[in-house]
Specification:
heterodimer; B: alpha/beta; Rossmann fold; 2 domains; five-stranded parallel beta sheet; four-stranded parallel beta sheet
């Protein structure tokens, strides 16, 4: 039985990272119906910026702050330069656009930071064993920070006026504009939030799974799958989806074959898109038009 | 109807022009194919510079660039400049096959180095064989050269590594082994080799787990390895995966000794594994313990000269993989110097290499052995306080 819990712990830790990425997808899609395929790149970039800042002698917390701010700026600039100028944005257009941005960002990271994978030092704390299950301090940091961040994002979208205004943009764009909400500004803010979420994911994952120029690809794909479990609009479902996907991957790798680990996400994606395209956790299981 | 003959004539004329042009081009190509006595000698390399093999490919690229620069500064090969063309296969098999095709058809290279890892090397092998161009792989798996005519390699064969591990395991009285291996070409056939080499010592593999070369979470594999309860375990992979696996091994509290392969000989492994690496045992080339070698070691001079030059250029010591690239480059240069740019002559020269003292070992090739290294070319190494440490035998 300790094996089972060991796998679950590893799965939750990995799943929390997926959850952070998935929240980034949902944060943008729920406001503007844009699918941002560069979401994973935000994570890789945060890790690389923090690594080079720490390498330049900055203390770890400062290096992480530098990374958060840089990625937030990149996310906003990306929105201003590539998303804002498009007059008639559709989900398909956004996919093509952000795929291009994702490729460009990857190339840029490869040029600046080189191809080799490196990891940030782990956050403080010592590893321990409970009932035969070995837990890394970093696992607790990852889960704790993810839950706090998720709570904050949910609170923002559900309880604050600004957050509700953001959601209104997606649900009733014309009405939102009539009452004085600018969909453009709303999208910029959504990108800022998504950038920060991606950066947090990248910083937390780096000590365990290392960072390199292309690590955003897998993270982005897994995060996207997790987000589709909530129909891409629900933050809560994105978090649940991420954790579930992480645990499912760990259990499949442990009990069936580790070779199937990466297949799990795609099987889940196909099943969700065929059976419940509106999201598994949503009450109205309909495809949004 | 009247136009028809004109059109035919025009067609015929066009065809004739094309054929003539084709002939001319073919002739031109033929000229370049035959050995020339002047102009640059072209060495092509296909390396895993990005992707899962980056920690191998990058130092290999750096080594080749350094050596080519040195060679040209010294006047090249018989006064002919050496042109080095390096391609990145992005650690993929199809990338490697595309790259070698480009090197052969577009760049018309005289000899090919690479790839860094087994999978891409295996993908290049049939291309080199059919184009009849000598290729020197820098990767480990014996399958790269088994039965090959045109392919050679400089990394120690996996079988040679396994002989060392089995001998040590037999000394220590282990009889069951657990194996966590790379799921790509590097790990193919490793379990079978352990069982066949271990047979006479009563050693066998009782559990095998595999991991993707770019895997980052090893909990599942290590949980299963722990449950198998073998006398000792083997992690068979390359950095950074091998380092992360080592961390997971210690983190899950597995008490029995762990062996690693010769794929871990670089700083990336030590950085990734950190304190978890302490106490592991791995057969590695002498390069990583160069400061601990006795002065009468026949390789010491070659290794020290290379390591000093590399460190002066790049600010850090060379890895095992840089050493494989060094040997590959030197063998290629020797072949070009002794046999010229004729493929068949180079092939025959390489097959006849005897007692070439390199960085990865002392090479003696033959028609049956295109690797040329033996169990003697590895030493057992452990890690103490984050440094590779020679185990005194």
């Amino acid at each position: 039985m300790s094996d089972f819990f060991q796998l679950v712990v590893a799965g939750l830790s990995q799943g929390a990272i997926y959850a952070l990425i998935a929240m980034g997808f949902a944060a943008i899609f729920s406001v503007s119906e844009i699918i941002n395929l560069a979401q994973g790149e935000f994570a890789a970039m945060a890790g690389l910026v923090a690594l080079s800042a720490a390498g330049a002698g900055l203390p770890l917390p400062v290096a992480m702050l530098v990374a958060l701010v840089s990625v937030a700026i990149v996310a906003v600039v990306m929105q201003r330069l590539t998303i804002a100028p498009v007059k008639k944005m559709t989900t398909l257009t956004s996919i093509i656009l952000t795929l291009g941005v994702s490729t460009a960002l990857k190339a840029l990271m490869l040029l600046i930071y080189g191809p080799e994978a490196r990891g940030l030092p782990a956050l403080p704390g010592s590893n321990f064993v409970v009932a035969g299950v070995s837990v890394r301090a970093q696992d607790l940091w990852i889960l704790g920070i993810t839950l706090v961040v998720a709570g904050a994002v949910v609170f923002f979208y559900d309880r604050t006026v600004l957050g509700k205004a953001l959601r209104a943009c997606a649900e009733q764009p014309v009405a939102a504009r009539l009452v004085g909400i600018s969909p453009r500004k709303a999208t910029t803010l959504a990108f800022l939030i998504a950038g920060l979420l991606g950066a947090v994911a990248g910083l937390l994952a780096s000590p365990i799974s290392l960072t390199q120029w292309d690590s955003g690809l897998t993270l982005g794909l897994k995060g996207f799958v997790a987000a589709t479990l909530g129909g891409l609009v629900s933050i809560r479902a994105a978090v649940l989806g991420g954790l579930l996907l992480g645990v499912l991957e760990a259990l499949v790798a442990g009990y069936i074959d580790s070779g199937f680990r990466d297949a799990v996400a795609f099987v889940v994606l196909i099943v969700v898109l065929v059976a419940r395209p509106g999201g598994v956790f949503s009450r109205h299981a309909q495809a949004r038009v | 109807m009247l136009r028809s003959p004109h059109r035919k004539a025009a067609l015929a004329l066009t065809a004739a022009t094309l054929i003539l042009a084709g002939c001319a081009e073919e002739q031109g190509g033929g000229d370049e194919g035959t050995p020339e006595e002047t102009g640059p000698v072209v060495i092509g390399a296909v390396l895993d510079i990005t992707g899962a093999g980056a920690s191998l490919g990058v130092p290999e690229r750096d080594t080749l660039e350094l050596l080519a620069e040195q060679l040209n500064a010294d006047g090249g090969i018989d006064g002919r400049e050496v042109e080095l063309i390096i391609e990145d296969n992005a650690s993929t098999e199809d990338g490697a096959a595309r790259a070698i095709n480009k090197l052969i058809t577009e760049d018309q290279v005289d000899i090919i180095l690479g790839a860094s890892r087994t999978g891409p090397s295996l993908a290049m092998r049939p291309v080199a064989e059919s184009a009849e161009i000598p290729m020197i792989s820098l990767a480990a798996n014996q399958a790269i050269v088994d039965g090959s005519e045109w392919v050679f390699k400089t990394a120690q064969n996996d079988s040679v590594v396994i002989e060392n591990i089995v001998a040590d395991a037999a000394d220590k009285g282990y009889s069951t082994l657990g194996l966590a291996r790379d799921a790509s070409g590097f790990g193919e056939g490793v379990e079978e080799l352990f069982n066949s080499i271990g047979e006479e010592f009563g050693i066998s593999v009782i559990a095998t787990e595999s991991f993707a070369p770019d895997a980052t979470d090893f909990t599942a594999q290590m949980v299963n390895i722990r449950d198998a309860g073998a006398d000792a375990n083997i992690i068979w992979g390359i950095p950074p995966a091998a380092g992360l696996a080592q961390v997971a091994y210690r983190q899950l509290g597995i008490e029995v000794p762990v062996y690693q392969s010769h794929g871990i000989g670089n700083q990336v492994f030590l950085d990734t594994a950190g304190a978890a690496a302490d106490g592991l045992v791995a057969p590695l080339g002498r390069l990583v313990v160069r400061d601990q070698l006795p002065d009468d070691d026949p390789q010491k001079e070659v290794i020290t000269a290379f390591a000093d030059a590399y460190e002066a250029e790049y600010g850090a010591g060379p890895s095992t993989f840089a050493g494989h690239a060094y040997d590959g480059f030197q063998l290629a240069v020797q072949a070009l110097a002794e046999a010229g740019t004729d493929g068949q002559a180079m092939r025959e020269y390489l097959e006849g290499v005897t007692d070439y003292v390199g960085v990865s070992g002392t090479f003696t090739m033959s028609a049956d052995d295109h690797s040329g290294l033996t169990a003697e070319d590895l030493v057992l190494v452990t890690v103490e306080n984050g440094e590779f440490t020679l185990i005194e035998s």
